[in-house]
Amino acid sequence: MLDACHFPPAGTLVDVAVSGGPDSVGLLLLALEADLVVTVQHVDHGLRATSGDDARFVESLGRELGVPVVTHVVAVAGGSNLEARARAARRTVLAPGALTGHTMDDLAETIVLNLLRGAGLDGLSPMVGDATKPLRDVRRAALHDYVAASGVVARRDETNDDPRYRRNRVRHEVVPLLNEVAERDVVPILAHQAALLFDERAWLDELVADERALEAVDCRELRAWPRARLRRWLRERLRDTRDDEAHPPSGADVERAIAVVTGEAVAAQLAGARRLSRRHQFLTLE
Question: Rounded to 5, what percent of the chain is helix, strand, coil?
Fold first, then answer.
């Protein structure tokens, strides 16, 4: 199984995010098998009555394996989309570049979820080339078998079976139905498609690797570009960089920006209280 992993060279210092479930425990065991120098990072979101037990399990496993464990207790902000809020809370405490136990099955599920919300190339080719996802070519069932064979009894998160969460419905209902309709395992197919689309992304990114600022390019030149190149160029130029992460604009914002470039609109309001306008064939972002 180690051959399917994308780990850095032996001896590399890495942070490994371990929740206590079989995916992250498998990641930890494989990282140690790959001779990496591991520090375990555990995040207690406090969302389940058993979360404290998870933390104690991970700390005990760390002692057994001889690796240091850092436990973070976070408060998850209120609102909709619990998964997104928990993910945001984790990001505030996890070390940059921490490895996570996402498998090929997670990649396929993410593609389906992103497709349902209308994602573009980036959303349909997640995790490919992502150094923080070294198990992206490993199947979940094989990983669980590997953990079971090690003798470690991983924790079970009961919320992973809760149909109130969309990812769970994709995992337990949609993907099995796709397998049935296709009469084959669709996960490797989706992973292969993601790899192909990732190559397309890389090519488009080369095309838009233009050092000129948004305000420096004449809209008459922009209008002559193929729409895919223009869309990608605007997506990069309109990233919201006001915090630690450079958030790309939504597809709707990019389309509004294109309307300004083509002359269908003089200005457009974008997310983040920003305004894109055109004057004398040049753009201004305020």
Answer: 50, 10, 40
How many Cα neighbours within 13 Å face the side chain of 254? 19
Q: For residue 244, is pLDDT > 90?
A: no
**Position 131 in a domain:** no
Q: For the segment 140-171, what is each residue's pLDDT rounded down to a tens digit?
A: 999 999 999 999 999 998 888 999 999 999 99
Closest CA to 213 of 222, 223, 200, 204: 222
What is the amino acid identity at position 72? H
Same domain (yes/no): 198, 86: no
Joined together, the tokens standing for residue 39 give 């520090």
Tell me whether residue 199 is in a domain: yes
**What is the extent of the structural domain holding 189?**
104-126+162-207
Contacts of residue 163, Cβ cutoff 8 Å, sequence gap at least 6 = 169, 172, 173
The reply to whether 22 and 36 lie within a common domain is: yes
CB hemisphere CA count around 147 (13 angstroms): 23
Of 82, 55, 87, the closest CA to residue 69 belongs to: 55
Decide: pTM greater than 0.85: yes
Q: Is the pLDDT of residue 196 over 90?
A: yes
Decide if pLDDT at 59 tops 60: yes
